[in-house]
Amino acid sequence: MDWLGIHWVGINEETGHKVIVTIAMLALAVAIHRVGRALIRAATDAERQATARFWSRQALAVIVSLLTIFAILSVWFDNPERLTTAMGLATAGIAFALQKVITSLAGYIVILRGKTFTIGDRITMGGVRGDVVALGFMQTTIMEMGQPPSVQNADPAMWVRSRQFTGRIVTVANSRIFDEPIYNYTRDFPYIWEEMPLPIGYRSDHAAAEALLLDIARRYAVMGQEVSGVDKARLRERYSLDVEDVDPRVFYRLTDNWIELSVRFLVPTHGVREVKDRMSRDLLKGLKQANIDVASTTYEIVGMPPLRLRVEGTRGQQEPTLT
């Protein structure tokens, strides 16, 4: 092909025509995608219909991508025999060179098909804890959060000692769903169970401490009558689980040093730190009023042998011996 006085090696009139058509198709696909996103944005409310907007955009991206791929293939491989030959030669190389890409794309399909999580869900994926803020063909974007003190030794360790955002945006490859479990805090049931331990001495009034824990937990926890019947029915239908006994309850554990009272209660998935903070403040006031001490690892000396002390004078004169 000769153009502008230059002989383009390997490009003839047919190939040049296909290149131009391909570029035009890509430009058309970009334009359709942008127009579709604009229509979705105009038809949905950003706050009330965030989930519908997200999935509409995902469906638009998948449809436009598939149509563009098929259109380009129809331009370049109008002869089925040529397409079969090219696919046979390219399959092995693509499968080897793009293992992670293909696996991530397969993970994306599994996420959509299996409803592993969706936008806004609080999950743990690839060692990252947080809320899903975006989902792409290859990666999932998570707004990272800290971790409670009980798992501070986990990898990676966080400087935020509770389930609150750290401010970091983390991207995780979709292929990780095939390598490790995905923990979803919000799927099908928007509550989680929490526990607050209270160690007290064996001489303390454990019955009064138990009553105090229950009273405080009932102020802030989600009670059984507050759980939506729809949420209960969803768990019963999908997993055959009955969520009935969700009211706060105190459990005892005897140790060598103290009695550990643990109150178990139900809270919404978000805002757990605020709930436990208010409970801790009320608990401190109640313990002070009830004169109940929190047990800690200390040593109590209950007796010691007689002590003999001998002091000598500075000039060699012996002073009286003290016993």
What does this protein structure show overall?
The protein has 323 residues and is α+β, with helices and mostly antiparallel strands. The chain folds into 3 domains: 13-97; 122-184, SH3 type barrels; 191-290, Alpha-Beta Plaits (2-Layer Sandwich). Helices cover 42% and strands 21% of the residues. The chain has 7 helices and 12 strands. The strands form 4 sheets. A 5-stranded antiparallel beta sheet has the order 6-5-4-3-7, with no helix packed on it. Strands 8-10-9 form a 3-stranded antiparallel beta sheet. A hairpin with a 4-residue loop joins strand 9 and strand 10. Helix 1 (13-43) runs antiparallel to helix 2 and helix 5 runs antiparallel to helix 7 (272-290). It is elongated. It starts with a strand and ends with a strand. Mean pLDDT is 80; it is low at 3-7.
Which keywords apply here?
alpha+beta; SH3 type barrels; elongated; 7 helices; five-stranded antiparallel beta sheet; 323 residues; three-stranded antiparallel beta sheet; Alpha-Beta Plaits
State the order of secondary-structure elements, H for helix, E for strand. EEHHHHEEEEEEHHEEHEE
Strand content: 15-25%
| End-to-end distance | 115 Å
- Structural class, by secondary structure, is alpha+beta
Enumerate how many helices there are, as a single number. Answer: 7
CATH architectural category of the largest domain: 2-Layer Sandwich
The CATH class assignment of the largest domain is: Alpha Beta
Largest beta sheet: strand ordering: 6-5-4-3-7
How many distinct folded domains?
3
C-alpha-based Rg, rounded: 33 Å
Q: What coarse outline follows from CA principal-axis ratios?
A: elongated
Uncertain runs are: 3-7
**What profile does the largest beta sheet have?**
5 strands, antiparallel
User: Tally of extended strands?
Assistant: 12
- What is the multimeric organization of the chains shown? single chain
According to CATH, the fold-level topology of the largest domain is Alpha-Beta Plaits
Q: In percent, how helical is the residue content?
A: 40-55%
Determine the mean pLDDT: 80
